[in-house]
Design goal:
binds farnesyl diphosphate, 247 residues, six-stranded parallel sheet, 7 helices, alpha/beta, Undecaprenyl pyrophosphate synthetase
């Protein structure tokens, strides 16, 4: 079934005044979903596409300004060569299939990750095409973490800092932050991981310093906007202090 791209009413039990601005998701559990059905792992990734689109349109309807999804990590190159090949091709073809409908909905597509390391040229070309097609859209940003590692992002930022000749006395959170992949995006308010694993797996290490974390047992291919809304509800029950005593 193709997800309904029209914004659906957001549940009344969500506080519209306290929506997270940036939600980030570790889309985990595709392999287990496929194994439960005696299907190859890659079938699980394929089934994850519908979940991704439904979560994106659900976030859009809720007024979330940025949704970052972990689509391929710098460590995922260690997976079997066939799966890596599938994932490269899948991410490329997903953009081909979906970039126009996302564009029609006003979604800006951006990418976080290492560009100049291992990613095939044709995949990079498709990523650039999706970014430039949607560059002026402002309804929501879908930031795809692709060939992304939190440590690699910090290493790359520090390398740029050195290349820029920043003196040791001028190294600060601000000078590092401004060299991350997308310094213009706010830090995630809420990070969701599916499939019952309680790990960060090298995702947004710098940015999630004060994010609220929500873990769900739902396997990624089964994830729908309703699960996103439940996670946002959980987030809204939390008290954020950012190291201080009061909000
Ligand atoms: C981190 O867990 C999870 C990811 C990097 C997400 C991987 C997602 C996919 C491969 C599917 C992408 C799906 C779509 C629809 C684009 P990990 O398994 O890398 O880390 P772990 O070994 O610590 O569990």
């Amino acid at each position: 079934m193709v997800p309904d791209p029209r914004p659906t009413p957001v549940p009344t039990w969500l506080d519209r005044a306290r929506m997270p601005s940036h939600v980030a998701v570790v889309m985990d559990g595709n392999g287990r979903w496929a194994e439960q059905r005696h299907l190859p792992r890659t079938a699980g990734h394929g089934a994850g596409e519908e979940a991704l689109l439904d979560a994106t349109y659900g976030a859009l309807a809720a007024g979330v300004s940025t949704l970052t999804v972990y689509a391929f990590s710098t460590e995922n190159w260690r997976r079997p060569v066939d799966e890596v090949r599938y994932l490269m091709n899948f991410n490329k073809s997903l953009l081909e299939r979906r970039q126009h409908e996302l564009d029609d909905e006003g979604v800006r597509i951006t990418f976080s990750g290492r560009r100049d390391w291992r990613v095939p040229k044709q995949v990079l070309r498709r990523m650039d095409e999706a970014s430039s097609l949607t560059d002026t859209n402002r309804a929501m940003t879908l930031n795809i973490a692709f060939n992304y590692g939190g440590r690699a992002e910090i290493v790359d930022a520090v390398a740029r800092l050195v290349a820029d000749g920043v003196a040791p006395g001028s190294v600060s959170e601000k000078t590092i932050r401004s060299r991350l992949y997308h310094p213009e995006l706010p830090d995630p308010d809420l990070v969701i991981r599916t499939s019952g694993e309680f790990r960060i797996s090298n995702f947004l290490l710098w940015e999630m310093a004060y994010s609220e974390l929500v873990f769900t047992d739902v396997l990624w291919p089964d994830f729908r906007r309703e699960h996103l809304y439940e996670a946002i509800h959980e987030y809204q029950r939390r008290e954020r202090r950012f190291g201080g005593l009061d909000k």
